[in-house]
Amino acid sequence: MNMNVVITERMHRSGIDFLKENDANVELLYETNRSLEDAIKDADGVVVRVAKINENLMRIGKEHKLKVIAKHGIGVDNIDVEAAKKLGIRVVNVPYSCINAVAEFALGAILLLAKDYVRFDSEVRKGNWNLRYHKSNVEIRGKTIGIIGYGNIGRTVAKFANSLGAYVFAYDRFVEVHEDYVKQVGLETLLKGSDFISIHVPLTKETYHLIGRRELEIVREGVYIVNTSRGGIVDESALCEAIERGRVSGALLDTTEQEPVTLDNPILKCRNLILTAHSAGNSDVAVVGDSLDSCRQVLQVLKGEEPPFIVA
Ligand SMILES: NC(=O)c1ccc[n+]([C@@H]2O[C@H](COP(=O)([O-])OP(=O)(O)OC[C@H]3O[C@@H](n4cnc5c(N)ncnc54)[C@H](O)[C@@H]3O)[C@@H](O)[C@H]2O)c1
Q1: Chain centroid to CA 145: how far?
Q2: Rounded to an integer, what distance in angstroms lies between the CA atom of residue 87 and that of residue 312?
Q3: What distance in angstroms lies between residue 82's CA and the mean position of ligand 1's atoms?
Q4: 270 and 240 belong to one structural domain
């Protein structure tokens, strides 16, 4: 069976090797000058990271031989899942590989903001060792960490937060919290009562700007916000204004509305905002699992087998 799989973006070689060992032809799109619009005409399967796969691309693929799109990771907001259902193209993802990677990253961000390592480093380098007499750092124990989205990652962050002696609030519209160390609350209570907010909902129509101007008006004064989920869930200009006013003490955004962030993006001017490159899920362990399990499922679909993580 002749199988062509297009890999849109760089990823760990484990999945690519697996495809080749199983006699698939692999096209590494990022090493060619070809557009995805063109390459999808030859593809039985496509593996994507953040590249957008819209209905138009799917239709082009479907007119030829496209059968499956695999997401290297969890969030499928870059794939038009409804269009895939309509067209009968299978969509799969890898929901378990990077849970710990993202949860650890979020915890690291909470600590980074609380302890202000970056500022201390830059002041010490300027000779301002005496900052220690003027600036204290924030202790996590006894503070409240509010988790928005109590799924696989949110639950893991809650466990970490509990182990540090924090109170934990969780807001989730669809799941019930069972852990006795977590208090399930409404969004407003979470916003008003949390010293740290960590966001772990998918990007959907409902979660777009879930944390917007109105929400940032009612957050607890001096809150820290961490978003390792998706750009678009936090209104970035409202966040920068809230940081400017001191309502929000600081934030870390791993994901932003514009990715990659270009040098003219106004968020780069925002102080007390730390930006990372959608890298929370890219741990040494997770990149192997994401690569292997996305490619493995492509082959399963192409061989007529049932893959474990079907989205559409
Ligand atoms: N930064 C990264 O590298 C990276 C890596 C992996 C995942 N992510 C993001 O993290 C998100 C969460 O991952 P997960 O594995 O925990 O997903 P999950 O599906 O296990 O959990 C998401 C939770 O959000 C809840 N939810 C959905 N819509 C909601 C709404 N409108 N209001 C309140 N709660 C809502 C769901 O009920 C669910 O419990 C993913 O969707 C993805 O966007 C980011």
Answers
A1: 19
A2: 10
A3: 18
A4: yes
152 lines ligand 1 (CB under 6 A): yes
CATH number, domain with residue 85: 3.40.50.720
**Do 67 and 160 reside in the same domain of the chain?**
no
SS3 label, residue 92? strand
Q: Is the CB of 207 under 6 A from ligand 1?
A: yes
Q: How many domains does the chain have?
A: 2
- Pocket of ligand 1, candidates 153, 184, 215: which has the most ligand atoms within 8 Å of its Cβ, to mutate? 153
Contact partners, residue 63, CB within 8 Å, separation at least 6:
41
According to DSSP, the residues that pair with 273 across neighbouring strands are 251
Give the pTM. Answer: 0.97
CA distances from 179 to 146, 170, 176 (A): 14, 11, 9
* pLDDT (tens place) for every residue of the chain, 312 residues total: 789 999 999 999 999 999 999 999 999 999 999 999 999 999 999 999 999 999 999 999 999 999 999 999 999 999 999 999 999 999 999 999 999 999 999 999 999 999 999 999 999 999 999 999 999 999 999 999 999 999 999 999 999 999 999 999 999 999 999 999 999 999 999 999 999 999 999 999 999 999 999 999 999 999 999 999 999 999 999 999 999 999 999 999 999 999 999 999 999 999 999 999 999 999 999 999 999 999 999 999 999 999 999 999
Spatial separation of the C-alpha atoms in residues 162 and 170, rounded to whole Å = 12
